[in-house]
Design brief:
- The complex is a heterodimer of chains A (112) and B (112).
- Chain A is an all-beta fold.
- Chain A contains no helices and 11 strands.
- In chain B, 0% of the residues lie in helices and 56% in strands.
- Chain B is globular and about 40 Å long.
- Classes of the chains: A mainly beta (112), B mainly beta (112).
- The interface between A and B is medium-sized, with 20 and 21 residues.
Chain lengths: 112, 112
């Protein structure tokens, strides 16, 4: 069975550009999570969805960040405009109910 | 603020020794506890989950949970250099179905 699929794996862009990260959860999972990981702050939860509905977005750093889940098999995390401090590894994870979360391979984002 | 605390290390042990990783959490209303392993440049992968007080063993790994002391640990027996990684403790609090709170992680180095 395919795991959580994220794209792109790497993204390098200039400050001020729009960045869109994509995630396909494991089929049948009803929870989807977006995390950001940096050396300074560790693994931070940005937002999570249950059955495509955003449940908790308190971790979203500011209005420049937005996330959508239009259907059960796809989610996006968008940053507009991007800033150098947004550089990090962004992980998507999914789970079924109370079962453990499974992580994608992540997107390594560099904002110049 | 619900928190999960880990000693960031690094923890260095010789090959063949027992590595002991510790984690404390701040809220008594906690249901589920997880240990993830993260190799450098990779995504977190689940290695153990524990839900009730006591010990749970899986191969060379043993998770120990003490809810009264709000303490969860991971023991790795017969440590191998391939165990060198960052180990993340994660807690699902009772009021946040689906959501995990992660510790900062402990860096483990197993030297030959």
């Amino acid at each position: 069975d395919a795991g959580v699929i994220q794209s792109p794996r790497h993204e390098v862009t200039e400050m001020g550009q729009e960045v869109t990260l994509r995630c396909k959860p494991i089929s049948g999972h009803d929870y989807l999570f977006w995390y950001r990981q940096t050396m300074m702050r560790g693994l931070e939860l940005l937002i999570y969805f249950n059955n495509n509905v955003p449940i908790d977005d308190s971790g979203m750093p500011e209005d420049r960040f937005s996330a959508k889940m239009p259907n059960a098999s796809f989610s996006t995390l968008k940053i507009q405009p991007s800033e150098p401090r947004d550089s990090a590894v962004y992980f998507c994870a999914s789970s079924l109910g109370s079962q453990p979360q499974h992580f994608g391979d992540g997107t390594r984002l560099s904002i110049l | 603020q619900k928190e999960v605390e880990q000693n960031s290390g690094p923890l260095s042990v010789p090959e063949g020794a027992i590595a002991s990783l510790n984690c404390t959490y701040s809220d008594r209303v906690s249901q589920s506890f997880f240990w993830y392993r993260q190799y450098s440049g990779k995504s977190p992968e689940l290695i153990m989950s524990i839900y009730s007080n006591g010990d749970k063993e899986d191969g060379r790994f043993t998770a120990q949970l003490n809810k009264a002391s709000q303490y969860v640990s991971l023991l790795i027996r017969d440590s191998q250099p391939s165990d060198s990684a960052t180990y993340l403790c994660a807690v699902r609090y009772g009021t946040s179905y689906g959501k995990l709170t992660f510790g900062q992680g402990t860096i483990l180095t197993v030297h030959p």
